[in-house]
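Write out this protein's structure.
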Amino acid sequence: MLDAAGWEALRLSLLVGVVATALALPLAIWVAWLLARGTFWGKSMLNALVHLPLVLPPVVTGYLLLIAFGRTGPIGRFLEQTFGLVLAFRWTGAVLAAMVMGFPLMVRAIRLAIEAVDPRTEDAARTLGAPGWSVFATITLPLILPGILAGGVMGFAKAIGEFGATITFVANIPGETQTLPSAIYALLQVPGGERAAVVLVFWACALALGAVVVSEWLARRVARRIASA
């Protein structure tokens, strides 16, 4: 059974995962569409920047976030002075770290789904007078919905399991920034903490597996609905 600290870490992990996924998903859809359908200068650079967190050590990503979004960083100072929003060493910073680390996975899944849609279908709708936003909302979006679900689940699972960037940017503060991975790490540093760590590992695995199962179920339902439409 989980103790009070374990439940708090589980609650915070779920909160971070849900908020990070909800905030990152609309931007991921837009960026994926730009990379799949757009033709513009700097497209290769945008693609490289999107995927940069996948190849950088997570600690480096967390340090860069600390420099930029810390209370003395240019963006962090602006957010605090303008909106009263503090990210460093707060759970909101854990959300930002989870968003950055999961964003490439979300974009990749959605981009592959968009590229699988025949552009001639979209072109046919445009020739009939449908505006671009209507084509995307009524044709492209329903067809790529399974990819969006897959990307969302990948982002959520990454947020649940993110450790390196999170602990560098927001530390490991119980009740404030201590998510499941951070709690497991802390328990493994304490003699006799292995048993409690195993319980948290079980919950982390259960969350990840549950997310994948739900994603597969939703994707199949959506695919069947599209096929029967």
